[in-house]
Design goal:
- The chain is mainly α.
- It has a domain of 212 residues.
- Helix content is 65%, strand content 2%.
- The protein contains 13 helices and two strands.
- It has a two-stranded antiparallel sheet with strand order 1-2.
- α3 packs antiparallel against α10, α3 packs parallel to α12 and α4 runs antiparallel to α7.
- The chain is globular, with a radius of gyration of 23 Å.
- It starts with 11 loop residues before the first helix and ends in a 10-residue tail after the last helix.
């Protein structure tokens, strides 16, 4: 195996124990994703159609991101999990903000933002628009970009754009769309009508400062490749301490916090959905799922620690 890939230099028995440790962590994360999916399956249609629909899709996004993390964890790929948790956290904040108050208008604002983004994307993809022509001029020296754009199937942009604009001009979208038109083009949906302007403000507004500071903000470097140098350290095994050590790929650093964040997010949102949409029977179903499927794994892992120094 290449030296930049993590490998335990221990007995086969210890390697098997490590693989089982990863498997249990992966299974625990997978089960917490299934816990959230269970809540979605138990949701009954509601009168607040926009709230119900937007919250459902945001919660599904969280379940998908956490499920993806379970696959990465099974292979010991801890660092890449952080980008998926950040994305899930944004969706969780969206659900909490919509549930806080003024739910239908906030849900409509989220949907309207997505519709406006589709209009903006269509401008880039449509070779007939001014924006589309500028994009093609800018990428003409990039053979891959040119090939990708040229390989796109024909699409009726005019029909879709007309349908979106018509939707945005009618209630309940018209009020929200007019508010967007008074703001900068990149205005966040939660910033409308005097709401929090940034993810940071939104997190603090929703009493989630810990999650923001230690998950979202601290891990932002991972998403933007700004923390690449954290994978290089002084080699403590070298007498003069001048050499450098490189963190191997698939290294288990930080696995416990990934597990806890994934578990807390999925189960937390499942509980929110239960409180808002489920009957007593549905909430009991969720509780039993947690006790039968998740808690036993948590109990097995709570006292297990792994140390794998790489520098």
């Amino acid at each position: 195996m290449p030296y930049l890939m993590f490998e335990l230099k221990v007995s086969d028995e210890r390697k098997s124990q490590y693989e089982e440790f990863l498997r249990l962590n992966s299974l625990g994360v997978q089960k917490t994703s299934e816990h959230l999916l269970r809540a979605l399956q138990l949701m009954a249609p509601q009168d607040d159609a926009f709230t119900h629909g937007v919250v459902f899709t945001l919660a599904r996004h969280i379940a998908e991101e956490v499920d993806t993390i379970s696959i990465l964890v099974e292979k010991g790929c801890v660092e890449p999990c952080k980008a998926h948790l950040r994305s899930a956290f944004e969706a969780e904040l969206g659900i909490r903000y919509i549930f806080e108050c003024d739910s239908e208008r906030r849900a409509v604002a989220y949907h309207a933002k997505e519709a406006r983004e589709r209009l903006r994307a269509n401008e880039k993809y449509d070779a007939r628009t001014e924006v589309g022509m500028r994009v093609r001029e800018a990428i003409k020296s990039d053979p891959i970009g040119v090939d990708v754009l040229n390989s796109l199937p024909e699409y009726d942009f005019d029909s879709e754009n007309e349908s979106i604009r018509e939707m945005l001009s009618e209630p309940p979208y018209a009020e929200v769309n007019a508010e967007y038109d008074t703001k900068p083009k990149n205005k966040a949906w939660h910033a409308l009508f005097g709401g929090p302007r940034t993810i940071r403000e939104l997190a603090y507004h929703l009493d989630r400062p810990f999650w923001y500071e230690f998950l979202y903000a601290d891990w932002s470097g991972r998403l933007h490749a700004g923390n690449a140098l954290r994978n290089v350290a002084i080699n403590s095994k070298e007498p003069e301490r001048k050499g450098k050590a490189i963190r191997p790929l698939r290294h288990p650093d930080g696995l416990r916090e990934i597990y806890n964040f994934g578990l807390g997010m999925s189960s937390g949102v499942a509980t929110l959905l239960g409180q808002r949409y489920l009957t007593d029977i549905g909430r009991e179903d969720l509780r039993r799922f947690y006790l039968d499927e998740i808690k036993p794994i948590n109990d097995q892992l709570k006292d297990v620690k792994i140390t794998a120094n790489w520098h």
